[in-house]
Structure formats: structure tokens, C-alpha cells
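Why do we care about 3D structure at all? Because function follows from shape, and shape follows, mostly, from sequence. That is the central idea of this module. The next example makes it concrete: a single protein chain, its amino acid sequence, and then its structure expressed as C-alpha cells.
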Amino acid sequence: MINKAFINNKNNQLYITTDFKNNSPTNINGQQNHLSLESSQVKKVLPKPKTTFIAIRGVHQSIDIENDDFNQYMTDNFDLDNVKRIYKKTENSKPLPLLKAKCNNARNLESILNIGLKLGYTNHRVEL
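And the structure:
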């Protein structure tokens, strides 16, 4: 019986794990088992969508990124999720003018990297 089947993204090979002993596909009578994907109910695993994290530089510390309107603006206009501010790793944890955001759309990512990101009247530099 097939336990798990998946395609390795690095080398595009199909891996199938079974419960055959010693990886031998023969049964007790010496007849060869034929692996049937229909009868074993193997489910196709879809690859996860590619997510890329970007750095948005020069965002002033007074901008409240926890505000729902700000998050909605970033999602609607730039398709950016999970926007977080980066803090300095010291005792006082001073906020830096740097944001980290997750971009799910490759087309929007390319556009943002080329043009930049405009918040208010300021155009901000974006890096990977």
C-alpha cells in the first residue's frame, strides 16, 4: 500500500513511500505487485504559493502600522500582508524606519521593486 507520494521541487522526481518490507514490491506468492494510483487513493499535493518578504525603508516611526486602515491600504493597493515594524535589538528596543512585509503576487513584487512604494506623499525604497 502507498503511504505517501510527493514530487521533490528541487529535482522534479516523484517519491513514493510504501509499507512493503525491504522495499520489495513482491508479495508472499512471489507475484509482483502493480502499484495503482487509483486504487490507493493517493491525493495530489499542490505546491505552496511562493511568498517573498520585502523590506520597506524610510517609513517614519510615527506611522501607525497596527491601524486597520493602514493594513487595508497595503493589502488593496500593493497586495502586501503581514506588515511589521523592525525594532533595534537593544535594551530600549527603539523602532527603526524599516518595515517587513509579505508579498504573495510576483507581478506586484516586480512592480514594487522597480517603482517603489508610495505612502502618503513619500516614495519609499523597497528591497528583497
